[in-house]
Write a structure and sequence with these properties.
Elements: E1 2-7, E2 20-21, E3 25-29, E4 32-36, H1 47-51, E5 57-62, E6 67-69, H2 70-81, E7 86-88, E8 95-100, E9 104-108, H3 110-118, E10 122-126, E11 132-133, E12 138-144, E13 148-150, H4 151-161, E14 167-171, E15 175-181, H5 187-202, E16 206-213, H6 218-230, E17 235-239, H7 249-252, E18 260-264, E19 275-279, E20 282-287, H8 289-292, H9 298-307, H10 314-319, H11 326-333
Parallel strand pairs: 15-16, 15-17, 17-20
Antiparallel strand pairs: 1-5, 2-5, 3-4, 6-13, 7-8, 8-12, 9-11, 9-14, 10-12, 18-19, 19-20
């Protein structure tokens, strides 16, 4: 990139054709003072206005061989990192905005965002992973860090991004849930918990279609679990389980199924008494009182993943510990 300062009326402005203005330029027009923004290309449309500014200094940058203009580099890089469920706005003032195309959950690979930014050629700012987004919401902005950027620098940033998109947005789709309780929860509390859970789930297009109560017998609980799995229920919420009890019947019943216990206690507050398991496509979540009666909790964090069909894995449970103090961070993840 070559920088030059030309004096209009003295220097040959022909050498500025195709260059980018690198400092805002104040000009006089028939309508009064105006400004030409940095990043503007010196082209035929701009030429008449510039020619009238005799004595003004024009600060420009010109490309060297093998360099990309800022807007072109931003657009190309946005295409590299953008996955399904997103669209890229045309470049404006050197940057591209990446937006969601429907209501759903944003998925962002944070470690790869960091790798890109360490190259210092591309500036990549994103929403938090797990953010609830609507159609048109900004998920990321991409901007080349200079008005012209060398192909070698661009390629290093592209290699840091990896072979697959860093960003995607997964839409919510209709799903079914069930609520299973044991005798530890009083009937009036079951009613209150059902009302709370139904409202929470409805916000993500999940229908709480079934409620059941069972005795604390692992065999009977396992039978009920199997019925939910066979009926292709997406999410089973379990009330009355005690995660700290090694012999808790709602957890030991999972051993009678082809199932996987994903976590027993989540690194989230509230959520340390929460557990998650899966059997085929059905996710089971064991709820403590925090999750049952309307307090914001780990349930608010994880239900959107289920609603979007995203797997709830040990890796995901580990990652949500960063920002797991929900009263401080949930507002940044949720609308």
């Amino acid at each position: 990139m070559i920088r030059r300062t030309l004096t209009i009326g003295t220097d040959d402005l022909a050498t500025a054709r195709g260059a980018l203005i690198c400092r805002d330029l104040s000009i006089s027009t028939a309508a009064g003072p105006a400004s030409i923004r940095r990043g503007t290309t010196v082209d035929d449309a701009l030429w008449p206005a510039l020619a009238k500014q005799v004595g003004a200094h024009l600060d420009i940058v010109l490309p060297e061989p093998g360099e990309l203009a800022q807007e072109e580099a931003s657009r190309r890089f946005a295409e590299v990192i953008t996955g399904p469920g997103l669209r890229i706005d045309p470049p404006h003032q050197g940057q591209c905005v990446i937006r969601a195309t429907s209501r759903g959950i944003a998925r962002v690979q944070a470690s790869r965002v960091s790798r890109v930014n360490r190259q210092r050629a591309i500036l990549l700012a994103t929403a938090l992973d797990g953010r609830i987004v609507d159609d048109g919401d900004t998920v990321a902005i991409v901007k080349a860090s200079r008005l012209w950027i060398g192909l070698a620098d661009f390629d290093r940033a592209r290699q840091a991004a990896g072979a697959h998109p860093i960003l995607r947005a997964v839409p919510f789709s209709p799903r079914r849930a069930a609520f299973l309780t044991g005798p530890r929860i009083r009937p009036r509390n079951v009613v209150a918990a059902t009302e709370n859970l139904r409202g929470l789930l409805a916000g993500y297009d999940v229908d709480l279609a079934r409620t059941s109560s069972v005795p604390e017998d692992p065999t009977e609980i396992a039978h009920t679990y199997r019925r939910f799995v066979e009926d292709r229920v997406d999410l089973v919420l379990v009330g009355g389980s005690i995660a700290l009890d090694p012999a808790d019947p709602f957890i030991t019943a999972l051993e009678q199924l082809p199932s996987r216990l994903i976590c027993r206690g989540a690194p989230v507050d509230p959520g340390t008494m929460f557990w998650v398991a899966s059997a085929h496509r059905t996710v089971f979540m064991g709820l403590a009182s925090c999750e049952l009666y309307g307090r914001r909790s780990v349930l608010d964090l994880l239900v959107p993943y289920v609603a979007a069909g995203e797997p709830v894995t040990p890796g995901l449970i580990s990652e949500i510990g960063y920002g797991g103090l929900l009263e401080q961070t949930l507002s940044a993840r949720r609308r």
